[in-house]
């Protein structure tokens, strides 16, 4: 059996970075059933409506959609079941303290394989207001325009150098 090395992303929640400002990130393992792992190895999962909660000193991932395994039998899993996250006690205590603040929530950013084990990147996030989102879009557009102008300037220098050689 060949051991997998590195990080292979299964699913990412790109919308999370748009809707939330990320305060801190954590890496957690997930308690999964066998058919869930097989389905994830096929690259099927959705984090679009997922979130995490802290209940009784444990962290749970809710609303993650992992479709049933196609070759599974009656032992197949429920696609949207609640899954326990595996974190160190210190990290859980820190999360409990931070999530008690108003407006802070736990959002999964990505689901991936790391050295053959399924991990989730969990973010401590605060929801953005509409004007914050507009500011981010304006900054991104301005940055894009700057990089385009820089590219044009560099290409212009190349043309001048070529013309000088002839």
From TrEMBL:
One of its GO terms (cellular component) is cytosol. Signal peptide: none annotated. The keyword Cytoplasm applies. Residues 129-166 are annotated as: Disordered. Residues 133-147 have a biased composition (Basic and acidic residues). Coiled coil: none annotated. It holds the Pfam family SmpB. The keyword Nucleotide-binding does not apply. One of its GO terms (molecular function) is RNA binding. Residues 154-166 have a biased composition (Basic residues). InterPro entries: SmpB (IPR023620), SsrA-bd_prot (IPR000037), SsrA-bd_prot_CS (IPR020081). It is found in: Cytoplasm. One of its GO terms (biological process) is trans-translation-dependent protein tagging. Keywords: Cytoplasm, RNA-binding. Belongs to the SmpB family. Required for rescue of stalled ribosomes mediated by trans-translation. Binds to transfer-messenger RNA (tmRNA), required for stable association of tmRNA with ribosomes. tmRNA and SmpB together mimic tRNA shape, replacing the anticodon stem-loop with SmpB. tmRNA is encoded by the ssrA gene; the 2 termini fold to resemble tRNA(Ala) and it encodes a 'tag peptide', a short internal open reading frame. During trans-translation Ala-aminoacylated tmRNA acts like a tRNA, entering the A-site of stalled ribosomes, displacing the stalled mRNA. This is SsrA-binding protein.
